[in-house]
Task: structure prediction
Amino acid sequence: MSALILAPMEGLTDVHMRHVLTQISRYDWCVSEFLRITDQLLPASCFLNHCPELAHGSRTVNGTPVHLQLLGSEPEVMAENAERAAKLGAAGIDINFGCPAKTVNRHRGGAALLGESALMHDIVASVRQAVPEGTPVSAKIRLGIADSSALLENADAIHSAGASWLTIHGRTRAQGYRPPVDWQAIGRVSSRYPDWRIIANGDIGSAAAAALCREESGCDDLMLGRAAVSEPDLVQRLREPGLPALDWPAVHAWQMVFLQRMQGSEAGIVGRYKQWLGMTALVYAEAAEQFQRVKRAKRIAEVTAAVGT
Ligand SMILES: Cc1cc2nc3c(=O)[nH]c(=O)nc-3n(C[C@H](O)[C@H](O)[C@H](O)COP(=O)(O)O)c2cc1C
Result:
């Protein structure tokens, strides 16, 4: 059975979003937002704040495993932190080589490393060595920095370092999140390594897109990001073709669960709710209409007065 995985999305798929999305659709696992590793071993509290599921066997409330994603460029420091994460019970360690953010790339992190295959190898190999054999160590990359000419070299480096699998977002760093996504390029890696798990990612937003992506990339396993948030039952419908789509009242009810369980500043909570509402407006006309009613709200009570509980 092919795997369907919830993508890491910083500022979006935090513990609260994972809590609701994994109850609407079944995911084989989720990947946490990236945890930035610089030059030191982070205290356990940092890991637990970042990924509270660690305190519950690294699983969401309905038992979906959560893998912890690390981003950094120092093999030894990455290894020390991965070891700590594994001791805290992380279900898997994923390494981010795909983040295009300038602040991250300036410090030789994320997608900047796509031009340094030897360093990517050393990071993956050190992390692999530091965590128990039973804990998967994986990597997530883009096709390359400006083009996909180094894709096979990068994949070779990660494969020879012992990564359990590789997720490929079918875009270059230069593309950011702009189309087109190139699933065929992912296929060059999956055909080179028929026995290594390659997970395809990027713009899988419908059953038709999932089928085309599988055909072009040669990958059975798919990771979904933005569409999994805009259309939270999409993954369940990929699993069960013919399942009726969730109606708006059901999605709204989940958004209220999300709103009520978040903690922190009220403005921040309302902002996160509006962020999700805005994303669902791409799919549900009712969400667009509801967004108009809450767009100026700053308090939770204003939101519930406008849209109900
Ligand atoms: C808001 C946002 C935050 C993201 N944060 C991360 C991250 O923390 N780690 C990572 O590996 N990828 C991150 N990504 C990339 C996604 O995991 C995924 O590769 C990308 O969105 C393409 O998949 P999609 O078209 O299904 O959304 C992020 C993407 C978005 C839109």
The chain has two domains: 4-239, 248-307. The radius of gyration is 19 Å. The first strand starts at residue 4 and ends at 6.
